[in-house]
Protein backbone atom coordinates (compact mmCIF):
# COMPACT_ATOMS: atom_id res chain seq x y z
CA UNK A 1 0.00 0.00 0.00
CA UNK A 2 2.89 2.38 -0.54
CA UNK A 3 1.07 3.61 -3.60
CA UNK A 4 -1.10 5.75 -1.37
CA UNK A 5 1.75 8.19 -0.75
CA UNK A 6 2.99 10.44 -3.57
CA UNK A 7 6.58 9.74 -2.52
CA UNK A 8 8.14 11.53 -5.51
CA UNK A 9 6.36 14.74 -4.53
CA UNK A 10 7.58 14.36 -0.95
CA UNK A 11 11.28 14.46 -1.84
CA UNK A 12 11.60 18.25 -1.93
CA UNK A 13 9.45 18.99 1.11
CA UNK A 14 11.19 19.75 4.38
CA UNK A 15 10.53 17.04 6.94
CA UNK A 16 8.91 16.34 9.30
CA UNK A 17 5.46 17.23 7.99
CA UNK A 18 1.89 16.05 8.33
CA UNK A 19 0.31 14.69 5.17
CA UNK A 20 -3.48 14.75 4.92
CA UNK A 21 -5.14 12.42 2.42
CA UNK A 22 -8.23 14.48 1.58
CA UNK A 23 -9.74 11.69 -0.51
CA UNK A 24 -9.83 9.49 2.57
CA UNK A 25 -11.21 12.35 4.67
CA UNK A 26 -14.01 12.85 2.12
CA UNK A 27 -14.75 9.10 2.04
CA UNK A 28 -14.92 9.10 5.85
CA UNK A 29 -17.26 12.09 5.91
CA UNK A 30 -19.45 10.42 3.27
CA UNK A 31 -19.60 7.24 5.37
CA UNK A 32 -20.70 9.25 8.43
CA UNK A 33 -23.31 11.15 6.44
CA UNK A 34 -24.68 7.94 4.91
CA UNK A 35 -25.21 6.42 8.36
CA UNK A 36 -26.60 9.57 9.93
CA UNK A 37 -29.07 10.16 7.10
CA UNK A 38 -30.88 6.99 8.19
CA UNK A 39 -32.02 8.93 11.26
CA UNK A 40 -33.68 12.29 10.66
CA UNK A 41 -32.95 13.69 14.12
CA UNK A 42 -29.16 13.07 14.32
CA UNK A 43 -26.71 15.99 14.19
CA UNK A 44 -22.89 16.10 14.13
CA UNK A 45 -20.61 18.66 15.72
CA UNK A 46 -17.01 17.72 14.84
CA UNK A 47 -14.66 17.99 17.85
CA UNK A 48 -12.15 20.61 16.69
CA UNK A 49 -9.60 19.68 19.33
CA UNK A 50 -8.69 16.55 17.32
CA UNK A 51 -7.43 18.62 14.39
CA UNK A 52 -7.91 22.33 13.66
CA UNK A 53 -6.01 22.48 10.36
CA UNK A 54 -7.91 25.00 8.21
CA UNK A 55 -8.06 22.75 5.12
CA UNK A 56 -9.38 19.88 7.24
CA UNK A 57 -11.95 22.16 8.92
CA UNK A 58 -13.14 23.52 5.58
CA UNK A 59 -13.63 20.00 4.21
CA UNK A 60 -15.66 19.09 7.31
CA UNK A 61 -17.74 22.25 6.92
CA UNK A 62 -18.57 21.20 3.35
CA UNK A 63 -20.04 17.99 4.79
CA UNK A 64 -22.58 20.15 6.59
CA UNK A 65 -21.41 19.40 10.11
CA UNK A 66 -21.15 21.85 12.97
CA UNK A 67 -18.26 22.03 15.44
CA UNK A 68 -17.64 21.30 19.10
CA UNK A 69 -15.09 23.72 20.57
CA UNK A 70 -13.31 23.62 23.91
CA UNK A 71 -11.64 27.06 23.86
CA UNK A 72 -11.99 30.56 22.46
CA UNK A 73 -9.12 29.79 20.10
CA UNK A 74 -11.05 26.86 18.66
CA UNK A 75 -14.11 29.10 18.21
CA UNK A 76 -11.89 31.57 16.31
CA UNK A 77 -10.40 28.79 14.15
CA UNK A 78 -13.91 27.54 13.36
CA UNK A 79 -15.21 31.00 12.45
CA UNK A 80 -12.17 31.48 10.21
CA UNK A 81 -12.98 28.20 8.45
CA UNK A 82 -16.48 29.53 7.78
CA UNK A 83 -18.61 27.82 10.41
CA UNK A 84 -21.46 30.10 11.49
CA UNK A 85 -21.99 30.71 15.22
CA UNK A 86 -25.25 28.80 14.98
CA UNK A 87 -23.28 25.60 14.31
CA UNK A 88 -20.83 25.97 17.21
CA UNK A 89 -21.15 24.32 20.61
CA UNK A 90 -18.70 25.23 23.32
CA UNK A 91 -17.66 22.88 26.15
CA UNK A 92 -14.91 22.91 28.78
CA UNK A 93 -14.51 22.98 32.55
CA UNK A 94 -12.73 26.33 32.62
CA UNK A 95 -14.25 28.89 30.28
CA UNK A 96 -12.76 32.35 30.84
CA UNK A 97 -14.76 35.56 30.45
CA UNK A 98 -13.34 36.53 27.05
CA UNK A 99 -14.14 33.07 25.73
CA UNK A 100 -17.74 33.23 26.97
CA UNK A 101 -18.08 36.74 25.50
CA UNK A 102 -16.75 35.47 22.16
CA UNK A 103 -19.43 32.77 22.19
CA UNK A 104 -22.13 35.31 23.11
CA UNK A 105 -21.03 37.78 20.43
CA UNK A 106 -21.30 35.03 17.82
CA UNK A 107 -24.64 33.71 19.12
CA UNK A 108 -23.32 30.16 19.34
CA UNK A 109 -25.75 27.25 19.31
CA UNK A 110 -25.07 26.21 22.88
CA UNK A 111 -22.73 26.47 25.87
CA UNK A 112 -22.14 23.06 27.44
CA UNK A 113 -21.98 24.10 31.08
CA UNK A 114 -19.95 22.12 33.60
CA UNK A 115 -20.74 23.79 36.93
CA UNK A 116 -23.19 26.08 38.72
CA UNK A 117 -20.66 28.93 39.15
CA UNK A 118 -20.04 28.80 35.39
CA UNK A 119 -23.80 29.03 34.73
CA UNK A 120 -23.98 32.15 36.90
CA UNK A 121 -21.10 33.82 35.05
CA UNK A 122 -22.64 33.04 31.65
CA UNK A 123 -25.92 34.52 32.87
CA UNK A 124 -24.15 37.67 34.08
CA UNK A 125 -22.13 38.17 30.89
CA UNK A 126 -25.20 37.50 28.72
CA UNK A 127 -27.20 40.03 30.76
CA UNK A 128 -24.52 42.68 30.13
CA UNK A 129 -25.05 42.16 26.40
CA UNK A 130 -28.83 41.91 26.64
CA UNK A 131 -28.73 38.36 25.32
CA UNK A 132 -30.09 34.97 26.36
CA UNK A 133 -27.50 32.19 26.15
CA UNK A 134 -28.60 28.69 25.25
CA UNK A 135 -27.10 26.24 27.73
CA UNK A 136 -26.84 22.47 28.06
CA UNK A 137 -25.60 20.80 31.21
CA UNK A 138 -22.71 18.40 30.93
CA UNK A 139 -23.46 15.58 33.32
CA UNK A 140 -20.91 13.13 34.60
CA UNK A 141 -22.69 9.81 33.99
CA UNK A 142 -20.19 7.77 36.01
CA UNK A 143 -19.82 5.38 33.08
CA UNK A 144 -16.34 3.95 32.54
CA UNK A 145 -14.86 3.62 29.08
CA UNK A 146 -12.55 0.65 28.55
CA UNK A 147 -9.72 2.77 27.25
CA UNK A 148 -6.49 4.34 28.50
CA UNK A 149 -6.89 5.82 32.02
CA UNK A 150 -5.76 9.26 30.82
CA UNK A 151 -8.57 9.48 28.26
CA UNK A 152 -11.60 8.34 30.25
CA UNK A 153 -13.66 11.35 31.26
CA UNK A 154 -17.05 10.02 32.43
CA UNK A 155 -16.15 8.63 35.85
CA UNK A 156 -17.20 10.34 39.07
CA UNK A 157 -13.51 10.86 39.93
CA UNK A 158 -12.84 12.91 36.76
CA UNK A 159 -12.98 16.70 36.76
CA UNK A 160 -15.57 16.85 33.98
CA UNK A 161 -19.26 17.62 34.24
CA UNK A 162 -21.89 17.99 36.94
CA UNK A 163 -22.74 15.10 39.27
CA UNK A 164 -25.98 13.33 38.33
CA UNK A 165 -27.52 13.98 41.74
CA UNK A 166 -27.26 17.74 41.04
CA UNK A 167 -29.03 17.54 37.68
CA UNK A 168 -32.41 18.80 38.85
CA UNK A 169 -30.88 21.50 41.06
CA UNK A 170 -28.96 23.06 38.17
CA UNK A 171 -31.95 22.86 35.84
CA UNK A 172 -34.11 24.57 38.48
CA UNK A 173 -31.38 27.18 38.98
CA UNK A 174 -31.26 27.90 35.23
CA UNK A 175 -35.04 28.41 35.22
CA UNK A 176 -34.61 31.20 37.78
CA UNK A 177 -32.01 33.06 35.73
CA UNK A 178 -33.16 35.54 33.08
CA UNK A 179 -30.30 35.36 30.61
CA UNK A 180 -29.82 31.63 30.10
CA UNK A 181 -32.16 29.07 28.58
CA UNK A 182 -31.79 25.37 29.36
CA UNK A 183 -31.94 23.37 26.13
CA UNK A 184 -30.03 20.15 26.50
CA UNK A 185 -28.06 17.51 28.34
CA UNK A 186 -24.48 16.75 27.38
CA UNK A 187 -22.30 13.71 28.02
CA UNK A 188 -18.85 12.51 26.93
CA UNK A 189 -17.37 9.37 28.45
CA UNK A 190 -13.90 9.15 26.92
CA UNK A 191 -11.94 8.50 23.78
CA UNK A 192 -10.67 5.65 21.55
CA UNK A 193 -13.68 3.51 22.53
CA UNK A 194 -14.13 0.40 20.39
CA UNK A 195 -16.48 -1.57 22.65
CA UNK A 196 -20.06 -0.60 21.78
CA UNK A 197 -20.99 -1.85 25.27
CA UNK A 198 -19.53 1.37 26.68
CA UNK A 199 -21.89 3.47 24.54
CA UNK A 200 -24.77 1.16 25.49
CA UNK A 201 -24.00 1.80 29.16
CA UNK A 202 -24.18 5.53 28.45
CA UNK A 203 -27.55 5.08 26.68
CA UNK A 204 -28.94 3.16 29.65
CA UNK A 205 -27.82 5.89 32.02
CA UNK A 206 -29.36 8.64 29.86
CA UNK A 207 -32.64 6.69 29.68
CA UNK A 208 -32.75 6.58 33.49
CA UNK A 209 -32.05 10.32 33.76
CA UNK A 210 -34.70 11.16 31.17
CA UNK A 211 -37.29 9.07 33.04
CA UNK A 212 -36.39 10.96 36.19
CA UNK A 213 -36.81 14.34 34.45
CA UNK A 214 -40.09 13.26 32.91
CA UNK A 215 -41.47 12.53 36.35
CA UNK A 216 -40.74 16.17 37.17
CA UNK A 217 -42.26 17.38 33.87
CA UNK A 218 -38.94 18.75 32.64
CA UNK A 219 -38.44 18.52 28.89
CA UNK A 220 -35.13 18.64 27.05
CA UNK A 221 -34.69 19.80 23.44
CA UNK A 222 -31.56 17.87 22.67
CA UNK A 223 -29.33 15.11 24.02
CA UNK A 224 -25.63 15.38 23.19
CA UNK A 225 -23.70 12.14 23.67
CA UNK A 226 -20.24 13.54 22.90
CA UNK A 227 -17.74 11.56 20.84
CA UNK A 228 -15.23 8.87 21.65
CA UNK A 229 -15.49 6.34 18.81
CA UNK A 230 -12.06 4.77 18.30
CA UNK A 231 -10.07 3.87 15.21
CA UNK A 232 -7.88 0.89 14.23
CA UNK A 233 -4.32 2.04 14.91
CA UNK A 234 -2.99 -1.44 14.10
CA UNK A 235 -4.50 -1.70 10.62
CA UNK A 236 -4.82 1.71 8.95
CA UNK A 237 -4.74 0.12 5.47
CA UNK A 238 -7.26 -2.63 6.14
CA UNK A 239 -9.65 -0.52 8.24
CA UNK A 240 -9.27 3.07 7.02
CA UNK A 241 -12.87 3.97 7.91
CA UNK A 242 -14.30 3.20 11.38
CA UNK A 243 -17.49 1.19 11.83
CA UNK A 244 -19.91 4.10 11.85
CA UNK A 245 -22.85 1.78 11.26
CA UNK A 246 -22.30 -0.05 14.57
CA UNK A 247 -21.80 3.27 16.35
CA UNK A 248 -24.92 5.13 15.20
CA UNK A 249 -26.99 1.96 15.27
CA UNK A 250 -26.14 1.47 18.96
CA UNK A 251 -27.60 4.87 19.79
CA UNK A 252 -30.59 4.43 17.47
CA UNK A 253 -31.51 1.16 19.17
CA UNK A 254 -30.62 1.87 22.78
CA UNK A 255 -31.38 5.51 23.43
CA UNK A 256 -35.02 6.37 24.02
CA UNK A 257 -35.46 9.81 22.55
CA UNK A 258 -38.59 11.77 23.39
CA UNK A 259 -40.77 13.15 20.59
CA UNK A 260 -39.11 16.10 18.87
CA UNK A 261 -35.77 15.55 20.58
CA UNK A 262 -32.60 15.73 18.51
CA UNK A 263 -29.51 13.64 19.19
CA UNK A 264 -26.14 15.35 18.86
CA UNK A 265 -22.74 13.72 18.38
CA UNK A 266 -19.25 15.16 18.74
CA UNK A 267 -16.85 12.79 17.00
CA UNK A 268 -13.25 13.92 16.66
CA UNK A 269 -10.73 11.11 16.32
CA UNK A 270 -12.96 8.85 14.20
CA UNK A 271 -13.35 11.63 11.62
CA UNK A 272 -9.73 12.63 11.09
CA UNK A 273 -7.28 10.07 12.56
CA UNK A 274 -6.76 7.83 9.53
CA UNK A 275 -6.41 10.58 6.92
CA UNK A 276 -3.24 11.95 8.53
CA UNK A 277 0.32 10.62 8.57
CA UNK A 278 3.46 12.16 9.99
CA UNK A 279 6.19 11.95 7.35
CA UNK A 280 9.72 11.92 8.73
CA UNK A 281 13.19 11.38 7.29
CA UNK A 282 15.71 8.87 8.57
CA UNK A 283 18.81 10.67 9.85
CA UNK A 284 20.98 7.85 11.13
CA UNK A 285 20.96 4.13 11.69
CA UNK A 286 22.72 3.43 14.95
CA UNK A 287 23.81 -0.07 15.88
CA UNK A 288 23.29 -0.38 19.62
CA UNK A 289 24.68 -3.15 21.82
CA UNK A 290 21.53 -5.25 21.50
CA UNK A 291 19.46 -3.56 18.81
CA UNK A 292 19.31 -1.12 15.93
CA UNK A 293 17.98 2.38 16.28
CA UNK A 294 16.41 4.24 13.39
CA UNK A 295 16.88 7.88 14.34
CA UNK A 296 14.40 10.15 12.54
CA UNK A 297 13.93 13.91 12.32
CA UNK A 298 10.45 13.92 13.92
CA UNK A 299 10.14 13.85 17.69
CA UNK A 300 7.46 13.92 20.33
CA UNK A 301 7.18 17.65 19.75
CA UNK A 302 5.54 16.67 16.43
CA UNK A 303 3.48 13.70 17.66
CA UNK A 304 3.23 13.25 21.41
CA UNK A 305 0.75 10.38 21.65
CA UNK A 306 3.34 7.58 22.01
CA UNK A 307 5.18 9.47 24.79
CA UNK A 308 2.00 10.69 26.52
CA UNK A 309 -0.31 7.65 26.31
CA UNK A 310 2.02 4.84 25.23
CA UNK A 311 -0.05 4.95 22.04
CA UNK A 312 0.70 2.61 19.15
CA UNK A 313 1.14 4.06 15.67
CA UNK A 314 1.94 1.85 12.70
CA UNK A 315 5.21 2.89 11.03
CA UNK A 316 6.15 2.22 7.40
CA UNK A 317 9.28 2.89 5.39
CA UNK A 318 7.72 4.34 2.24
CA UNK A 319 10.94 4.57 0.21
CA UNK A 320 12.46 1.10 0.73
CA UNK A 321 11.51 -2.35 -0.60
CA UNK A 322 14.40 -4.14 1.11
CA UNK A 323 13.85 -7.10 3.46
CA UNK A 324 12.44 -6.35 6.88
CA UNK A 325 14.62 -5.59 9.86
CA UNK A 326 13.71 -4.67 13.43
CA UNK A 327 14.35 -1.14 14.70
CA UNK A 328 13.57 1.08 17.62
CA UNK A 329 12.31 4.22 15.86
CA UNK A 330 13.38 7.23 17.91
CA UNK A 331 13.40 11.01 17.60
CA UNK A 332 16.10 13.62 18.29
CA UNK A 333 14.64 15.13 21.48
CA UNK A 334 16.65 14.91 24.67
CA UNK A 335 14.17 12.74 26.56
CA UNK A 336 14.07 8.94 26.87
CA UNK A 337 10.34 8.95 26.07
CA UNK A 338 11.04 10.24 22.56
CA UNK A 339 10.34 6.86 20.97
CA UNK A 340 7.77 6.20 18.22
CA UNK A 341 8.02 2.42 18.36
CA UNK A 342 10.20 -0.35 19.73
CA UNK A 343 11.34 -3.38 17.75
CA UNK A 344 9.30 -2.47 14.70
CA UNK A 345 9.74 -4.45 11.51
CA UNK A 346 10.51 -2.04 8.69
CA UNK A 347 11.92 -2.44 5.21
CA UNK A 348 15.66 -1.96 5.80
CA UNK A 349 16.26 1.71 6.60
CA UNK A 350 19.04 3.96 5.35
CA UNK A 351 19.86 7.61 5.85
CA UNK A 352 17.41 9.67 3.80
CA UNK A 353 14.55 7.15 3.77
CA UNK A 354 11.08 8.52 4.44
CA UNK A 355 8.94 6.88 7.11
CA UNK A 356 5.20 7.35 7.48
CA UNK A 357 3.86 7.29 11.05
CA UNK A 358 0.25 6.38 10.39
CA UNK A 359 -3.12 7.26 11.91
CA UNK A 360 -1.75 10.62 13.04
CA UNK A 361 -4.57 12.89 11.87
CA UNK A 362 -6.15 13.18 15.32
CA UNK A 363 -4.34 14.68 18.31
CA UNK A 364 -1.19 14.93 16.22
CA UNK A 365 -0.43 18.28 14.57
CA UNK A 366 -2.69 20.07 17.04
CA UNK A 367 -0.67 18.84 20.05
CA UNK A 368 2.70 19.81 18.59
CA UNK A 369 5.03 21.94 20.73
CA UNK A 370 8.27 23.86 20.34
CA UNK A 371 10.21 22.07 23.10
CA UNK A 372 13.96 22.07 22.36
CA UNK A 373 13.25 25.21 20.26
CA UNK A 374 12.07 22.99 17.45
CA UNK A 375 9.90 24.49 14.71
CA UNK A 376 6.29 23.29 14.51
CA UNK A 377 5.67 20.65 11.85
CA UNK A 378 4.09 21.87 8.61
CA UNK A 379 1.09 20.32 6.88
CA UNK A 380 0.74 19.15 3.27
CA UNK A 381 -2.75 18.67 1.83
CA UNK A 382 -3.06 15.97 -0.84
CA UNK A 383 -5.34 18.17 -2.97
CA UNK A 384 -2.55 20.76 -3.25
CA UNK A 385 0.12 18.38 -4.59
C1 LIG B 1 -12.55 15.40 23.15
C2 LIG B 1 -14.01 15.58 23.11
C3 LIG B 1 -14.75 15.02 22.06
C4 LIG B 1 -14.13 14.20 20.95
O1 LIG B 1 -13.58 13.01 21.38
P1 LIG B 1 -13.04 11.95 20.31
O2 LIG B 1 -12.58 10.82 21.15
O3 LIG B 1 -11.95 12.57 19.55
O4 LIG B 1 -14.20 11.55 19.44
C5 LIG B 1 -16.11 15.24 22.05
N1 LIG B 1 -16.72 15.95 23.02
C6 LIG B 1 -16.03 16.51 24.04
C7 LIG B 1 -16.75 17.30 25.05
C8 LIG B 1 -14.66 16.34 24.11
O5 LIG B 1 -13.99 16.87 25.14
Can I get a quick summary?
The protein has helices spanning 7-10, 22-36, 54-62, 72-80, 97-105, 116-128, 167-176, 196-215, 244-254, 269-272, 305-309, and strands spanning 17-20, 42-47, 66-69, 88-90, 110-113, 133-140, 162-163, 180-186, 222-224, 262-265, 276-287, 292-296, 315-317, 324-330, 339-347, 354-357, 378-381. With 385 residues, it is α/β, with parallel strands linked by helices. The strands form 2 sheets. Strands 1, 11, 12, 13, 14, 15, 16 and 17 form an 8-stranded mixed sheet that branches. Strands 2-3-4-5-6-8-9-10 form an 8-stranded parallel β-barrel, surrounded by 4 helices.
Description:
The chain has 385 residues and is an alpha/beta fold. Helix content is 28%, strand content 23%. It is built from 11 helices and 17 strands. The strands form 2 sheets. Strands 1, 11, 12, 13, 14, 15, 16 and 17 form an 8-stranded mixed beta sheet that branches. Strands 2-3-4-5-6-8-9-10 form an 8-stranded parallel beta barrel, surrounded by 4 helices. Helix 8 packs parallel to helix 9. The longest helix has 20 residues. The protein is elongated and about 70 Å long. The two termini are 19 Å apart. The model has no long low-confidence stretch (mean pLDDT 95). The chain binds pyridoxal-5'-phosphate (PLP).
- Coarse structural class: alpha/beta
Quote the distance from N terminus to C terminus: 19 Å
Kindly estimate the percentage of residues that lie in beta strands according to DSSP: 15-25%
Helix content: 25-40%
Largest sheet, in brief, is:
8 strands, mixed
What is the element string, with H for helices and E for strands?
HEHEHEHEHEHEEHEHEHEHEEHEEEEE
Amino acid sequence: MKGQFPVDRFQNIRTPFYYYDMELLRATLDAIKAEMSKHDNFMMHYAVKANANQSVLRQIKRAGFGVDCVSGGEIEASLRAGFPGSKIVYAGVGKSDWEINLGLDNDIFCFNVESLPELEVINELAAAKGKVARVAFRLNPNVGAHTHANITTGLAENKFGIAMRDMETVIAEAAKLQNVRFVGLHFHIGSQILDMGDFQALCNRINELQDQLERHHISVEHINVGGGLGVDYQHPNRVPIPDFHAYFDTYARRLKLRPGQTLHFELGRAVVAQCGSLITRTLYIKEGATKKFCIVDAGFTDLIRPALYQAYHKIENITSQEPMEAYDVVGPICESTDVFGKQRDLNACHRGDLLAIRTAGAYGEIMASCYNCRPLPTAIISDDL
